[in-house]
Amino acid sequence: MKKKLLLSVLSLSALIGLSGCNKLDVVGDTSVKSFDAVLKTAEYQLAIDEANNSWSLTAPDQSVRFVWSSDYSKTQNYDAFLETDAKPFIDAGLDASKLPEGMLVGDKIIVGTEFGNDKLTYEGDVTALKSYEQIVKLYRDSVKYHAALDHYGVDLMNGNMFEWAKDMSKNDKDIVYVLNPQVFIEAGVDPQKVEGWVFAKVETMDDKGKKIEVDKFLKPFDLDGKQ
Q1: How many of the other CB atoms lie within 10 Å of CB of 17?
Q2: 0.85 cut: is pTM over it?
Q3: Phi/psi of residue 93, each to 5°?
Q4: Which residues contact 165 (CB under 8 A, 6 or more apart)?
Q5: Secondary structure class of 99 (helix, strand, coil)
Q6: For the chain, which has fewer Cβ within 10 Å, the N-terminal or C-terminal residue?
């Protein structure tokens, strides 16, 4: 009897613990809700990218897009990435031969991350939001909260990000495409001369939770005002 009672208590504790973990993931849960709001507002900029088995959210000026996979087992390169026009960087002094191999593809610059080889499964229709939810579910560490801008974002590795406002009604930067400028500077780019990108210091946290400032290329958009 005591053993049965003990097992029941342990089982109940485990269920409560699992429930608590889900409820405590405020960043993950709220990021889904806010990303849904962005997708609905930017519905005309959202598209299926069949070549990459992915979804694509293109900036209002058409110069850059965020792409995220609907099935990691079918992606050829990155599971999530930014793709942007190379011309502004070339005009600012870029020596393409000094970029990492594979970063320049045709007239596009691509930076991204691989999550894994998971064959993603869905209940009902496969949608852009559900594909984002897979990132939260399977690769939660890639979903970040940027307190300085009150943004959520997907970490694309090496200092590159795609971010969106937690609450678009309280933020004039509804979406922001973020690039790490260091690799471009090392390849000859004058960061002050890259047309269409803001070169700025951004407050963030280091691995120990200490506030620091880092250099970034930013391309922000107010989806109501289109920039």
Answers
A1: 10
A2: yes
A3: 110, 10
A4: 34, 38, 149, 150, 151, 171, 173, 174, 175
A5: coil
A6: N
